[in-house]
Amino acid sequence: MERKFIQSLTGNFESFAHKTDDGVEFWLARDLQYLLGYTEWRNFLKVVNKAKVACEISKQTISDHFVDVNKTIEMPKTAQKDIDDLMLSRYACYLIAQNGDSKKEEIAFAQTYFAVQTRKAEIIEQRLLEVERVQSRYKLAETEKELSQVIFEQTSGNENFAIIRSKGDKALFNKTTRQMKGRWDIKNNKPLADFMPTILLKAKDFATEITIFNVKNKEIETESEISKEHIINNKTVRKTLISRDIVPEDLFPNEDVKKVERKLKSEEKKSLKSDKKIKK
After folding, report:
1. Are strands 66-74 and 80-88 parallel, antiparallel or unpaired?
2. I need a surface site. Which of 104, 131, 185, 210 has the fewest CB within 10 A?
3. Which helix (H) or strand (E) holds 67?
4. d(CA 112, CA 106)
5. CA distance 263 to 134
6. What is the pTM assigned to this prediction?
7. pLDDT tens, residue by residue, 16-49
8. How is the beta sheet containing 25-28 ordered, strand by strand?
């Protein structure tokens, strides 16, 4: 396949892409029919139907990727006509290309194009999730630092923070910190929070924020009373999670957040170096 032809097809496929109000990319089936070199709509529909079957087999909801719509076309003498069309997700386009005749250059190109585009979207989504988790870990660290300061001011003892935090873990997980480290196969010198999924980091942060607020507002001054407050808040958050079928201790641990952060920083440096090379 010649380079100019590839560049031409790339431009065509990108120019026919649309976006919903939420920023979700999609293509119209009538446009894709043209891009893939099908002259007859009925023949193209056969490929679309095969793609729907493939979508179902992959345990995806068909209506999430193939959406029935109408399209108005111009007719002779200023008349108009509504015809059937489909809004197609990137994944739907990929499945259609996979079920087309790969001997056709347009389809061979589309198979690679949508596979690469889908992979790019997955990489971007994964990176955003990793960034969110790192940020959530930082937020929890800051909140716990504030709780430590509040406990010191109220009880005049730094050692009380570790005790209170440990009691909060027990209330949230229904297991001690040590037991959770054993369950998740974490070394004793590693913080449990560094391996928590984002949902638990946010849950723990929320419970800690409530503790800080109430300790200040109610002027709680003893370790036992602050512990009681922190336990109640973590138990309440745990109850909310379980009511939504999220059992904290049954979730799988995530990769060490410090490793994730280092990876993100490394990728950012590589990207910046790449940009510099392009600018030269």
Report:
1. antiparallel
2. 185
3. strand 66-74
4. 10
5. 11
6. 0.64
7. 788 888 777 888 999 899 888 888 999 999 999 9
8. 18-19, 25-28, 80-88, 66-74
